[in-house]
Design brief:
The protein is of the alpha+beta class. It folds into two domains: about 1-35; about 45-140, Immunoglobulins (Immunoglobulin-like, Sandwich). It has helices spanning about 1-20, 30-35, and strands at about 45, 50, 60-65, 75, 85, 90, 100-105, 120-125, 130-140. The strands form two sheets. The chain has a five-stranded mixed beta sheet, with no helix packed on it.
Amino acid sequence: MKRGILGLIALIAIIGLMGCSHLGLSKGESEEALAPKSEPGPVVMVGTQEVTVSSKAKVVIMGCGFTPKQEVRVLFTTQDGVLSDIEDGLKPKPVANEIGTWVTTWTLGRYSRIIKEAGVYTITAADSDYNFLSQVPIAFYPEKKEKKKK
């Protein structure tokens, strides 16, 4: 008798767990959630290998996987969390071409003053409504001081 009741309880528990495993998902959604995406989302990259903290420094920033003709906002985040739109330091203005890629050059200029020290910062690509699309770290190095010859 005890074995029968324990077996029945085990059977109910198994059926209940199987039913709960698909809660909230309609037919086919569980397979879609597990399936890899066919296309990756937008990607932003820094093309300059070593950037020194200098007002004359230039950084190549590029992206791919964006919507064709999409205007891209490029944002810079300092180590203390200050977020700046650096649009006025970019040439040309980043707009995705017909295959969704873009490239621009950022001249640090006055932005070199907000980079208080060498280290790792963040570049973010956003849409025209400032919705974040992709991020990439960027490392800044101290400006090399030239040694005077005697």
